[in-house]
Amino acid sequence: MYTQALDSLEADLLPGEESTAALEQRFQAKVDAEERIEPKDWMPDAYRQTLIRQISQHAHSEIVGMLPESNWITRAPSLRRKAVLMAKVQDEGGHGLYLYSAAETLGVSRDELLEQLLSGAAKYSSIFNYPTPTWADIGAIGWLVDGAAIMNQIPICRCSYGPYARAMVRICKEESFHQRQGFEIMMTLAHGTAEQRRMAQDALNRWWWPSIMMFGPSDADSKHTTQSMRWKIKRFSNDELRQKFVDSIVPQAQFLKLAVPDPDLHLDAASGHYRTGAIDWNEFNQVLKGNGPCNRERLAARRRAHEDGRWVREAAMAHEAKERSR
Amino acid sequence: MTAHSQWPLYEVFIRARSGLEHKHVGSIHAADDRMAIEHARDTYTRRQEGVSIWVVRSSQITASDPAEAGALFEPAKDKVYRHPTFYEIPDEVKNL
Predict the structure, then answer these.
(1) How many domains does chain B have?
(2) Number of other residues whose CB lies within 10 A of the CB of residue B48
């Protein structure tokens, strides 16, 4: 109902009515008062574009995120683990759909969004460009990657844009099982044989730094933060969220008796926070540019799935047209 | 997939359990009404969120214009006498 209703936006801008400056002022006052912006409300174009970019990147991440995990569905070590993993991967698909719908309320079509993903024009979370060579990776992804995602997403439940906030409430509710099942896998491995412990440690070694980097560049280098915070799209800075994540994960790693792969990690007694060593942003930027271990493989898999499904989409439309003509 | 072949957009309404009203939960794309129900079920009821689904083509919904919100809804603002608390009744009067 939202996309077609956008046609009426122009009505707000008729000459003789409010100037853009006045509209912007009223918009910001609404945001400041913690009121939600809904699809048909007037909004600055930059706000709309920022949201389209952010929500669609988020949707793409959910969809691409299905790939590294679905890789393990047929090889999950028990029927229970297989059922859980299928439910989780299905959830990620659902999350992608909630988010695409939220983005579409801003006047962009699903086709355009998919096209941006498949052409490589749109970004998705770099974390999914790392491989999942062992079963322990499924544990580490749930525990660390979903853990970081939850940390990022909970504040977005209060985002100023209504449809995004509502999608996020639903997603956060579903994500908490994802993190718990991941921790459970890690716990089982950590309490298992020496070889299983080694697997768990190896997975933590590989996923720790990429997870830390999921929060994005440090505040000093984050170009969108100030404006996004003013618009209440974002509530906490990247570094604040990263700190919260580190503070919650380090004790969990200690519980598992696994070593966080950072020789400089220490508890800062004065502040009560765990401080990490320096982050290798060069690696982050390389993966972002498309040079991560799996960038090409992930996009190729998405393109193939899209092409392989083409006949189904077309047949469904042909069937609908035939039914309608009867 | 060209823009012309895009599956139309549907709005989804779910009744959480009998006795409650259907509530808007989001939207999905589907080729036809039946597929819309199936997609709504897969997308919005993976955790027993509902016992009944309504879907309607988004293009079939007529919505009020936010620019007219004042004209539509503000007249109710000064009609406080429509609420029971408007009337002062002594405490000793019971069952009112």
Answers:
(1) 1
(2) 8
